[in-house]
Amino acid sequence: MFTGLCAFPLTPFHHEKIDFHAFEKLIGNLKQANVESICAMGSTGLYPYLSRDELVKVTESSVGIAGDTPVMVGIGSLRTYDVLKNAEAAQQAGAKALLLAPVSYHPLHDAEVFGLYEKVTAEISIPLCIYENPGVTQFSFSDELYRQVTQLPNVGAIKIPGMPFGDNNANGKIRLSSLRNIVPEHVAIGVSGDKFGALGMHAGCDLWLSVLGGLFPNTVRTMIASSQSTSPQAAIAQSERLTPLWDLFARNKGGMRVMATAAAILGYTEANCLPHPLQPLQGEDKQKLEAILTQLSLD
Amino acid sequence: MFTGLCAFPLTPFHHEKIDFHAFEKLIGNLKQANVESICAMGSTGLYPYLSRDELVKVTESSVGIAGDTPVMVGIGSLRTYDVLKNAEAAQQAGAKALLLAPVSYHPLHDAEVFGLYEKVTAEISIPLCIYENPGVTQFSFSDELYRQVTQLPNVGAIKIPGMPFGDNNANGKIRLSSLRNIVPEHVAIGVSGDKFGALGMHAGCDLWLSVLGGLFPNTVRTMIASSQSTSPQAAIAQSERLTPLWDLFARNKGGMRVMATAAAILGYTEANCLPHPLQPLQGEDKQKLEAILTQLSLD
C-alpha cells in the first residue's frame, strides 16, 4: 500500500465534537479520486487530540467509506501503554497500516525511541509506518537509528520530513540516497512536507504522504504521475505555482490550519472545524487562501 | 500560596501503573520539610501522561498527605475541552491552585494561547499559575501576551523559564524587571529551571518552582532563605557546587529523568519509576549521579 498518494484528511470538529458528516464527505472525495491509500488521523487528522473511543469511531467511519482503499491510522501517544492500546483498537476497527511518530512532552532520547518501536512492532500484525516530524515531536532520526528501527518486524515504511530534493547537492537527495543504503528494500520511503513532494517523488521516494492531497487528491495525483515520468517539468511547475500556498503553510506552522480553513471555504465543514484552542486562519491569511483557491484550480 | 518553595515531585510508576506507595513517601518528605506548596503533577510529575482518573487519584493522595500544605495540580492537555475537565476534577479532589502550560502537538499561535487561558480562567474558582516552558511546549510568551493573560481573572502566578539572573545586564534580570512593570501586583512571578533558582530569588522572584526541591526540599529551602537575605553568597556558592547536577539536567533534556533516577537510588521508588518509553539514566550518567548524591549532602 505504500506507493503513490497517501492522503491525509482532516478530522473536522463542530462544537468540540467530531463532525462525522463532514468527515465522510472528505473521505468520499478521496475514494472517488482513487487515491492509493488514506491516512485517517495523521497529524492533520489530529490523532493525538483524540480519545481512544474517537480513534475507533473515525477508523470505522474511514474504513466503511474507503472500501478497498487501504486506511492507515495514527496511533502515537505519550505512553507506550496507550500506543499499544491504540494499535489494538485500530487493527480491530479495520486499519490496514499504522502510523507512529515518537510523540513526546519531554523530548525523547534515541534509546527511548528505539524502545518504543521495538515494543510496538512486536505486538502488531499489520505494517507500521515510522513517522519523523521534528516540528511536532522535537525528535529527528539519525541514519543509525533508521538503520536499527527499520530492521524491526512489521515496519513497512518511513515518512521523512520534507527537504530540498532539487539538484544533486540538495540535502534531501543526499539523505534519500543515504537512507536507500540503510533501509531494507521492503521498507518504502515516503516524503512529506508538500512543498517538497513533487521533487521528492522525482528523486525516487516511493510515496507522497500529503496534507494537500487530503483535500485535493487529483491535484497531487497528477503531480505524482508527472514527477515519476521522464519529463517531470509539469509537476515542478505546478509545485512552483503553489508557492503562495507553501508560504501560508510556513507562516501557520504547517498545513493543518490552512487545510482546515480551505475545507470550510469549500463547504466540506463548518466555518471553524478545529477543536479549541486550535483556530483556523483569520484576517489576511484567510483572504490570501481564498484568493489562492479561486486562482489555482485545485481539485 | 505563591511564595518560597513550590516543590515539584515525581509521579513514580511501577510496571506502567502509578506507584502510590512511593508517591506517598515523596509527598511525606515534602510535608516534613515544611515546603510552602507542592505541585503534584507538574512536568516532572508527568501530568500530560496521566488519564483524568489518574489525575484525580494523585490529587487526592497528595492532598491527603499534604494536609494544610497547599497542593497545585497540572491540568494541561491538548484540547481545551480536556483542560476544563481536568480543572474541574482537580478542584473537586482538593487542589488549591492549578498549573497550566500551553501544551501542544501542533505548536500554538499567540491568539490560541490567549484563547485557552481566557476560557479556562473564566471557569475556575482557585488561582491559576500560567506556565511557560518552551522546552516541552515549543511556545514562548511575549511580554505583550503576558500583559494580556495576567489581566484575566483567577491568575495568581506566572512560572517563567530559567534565565541568567546574575548581573544587571543578564537577560533574566532584564526580563524580570520588564515583567514587574507588565504583570499586576497580585500576580506572583516564579522562577523555574533550578540552575537559575538561587539568583532568580535574589533578583526578586516571588517563588521558586523546583524540580530539585521535589526530592531535596531542605537544600532548596536553605538556598531560598540565603538568596532572600542581604548576604546571598551562600546560596550562590551552593548553586555553583551543584554545577555537575545542572550539567546532568542539561544532558538529559531537563531534570525529570535525573530526579527519577535519584529517587530510585535513594530508595523512594523502584529502580525504573518511569512509564515507557521514558527511561531513567543509564551508564556513565547514572554513575555521575551516584557520585553527586554521595559527595553533595542534598536533603
TrEMBL record, chains A, B:
Protein keywords: Lyase
Pfam families: DHDPS
SUPFAM superfamilies documented for this protein: Aldolase
The protein's Enzyme Commission number: 4.1.3.3, 4.2.1.41, 4.3.3.7
Binding site for pyruvate: T44
One MF annotation (Gene Ontology) recorded for this entry: 4-hydroxy-tetrahydrodipicolinate synthase activity
Domain of life: Bacteria
Active site, renumbered: Y131, K159
Matches recorded under CDD domains: DHDPS-like
Family listed: Belongs to the DapA family.
Name recorded for this polypeptide: Dihydrodipicolinate synthase family protein
Species the sequence originates in: Alteromonas stellipolaris
Taxonomic lineage from the root: Bacteria, Pseudomonadati, Pseudomonadota, Gammaproteobacteria, Alteromonadales
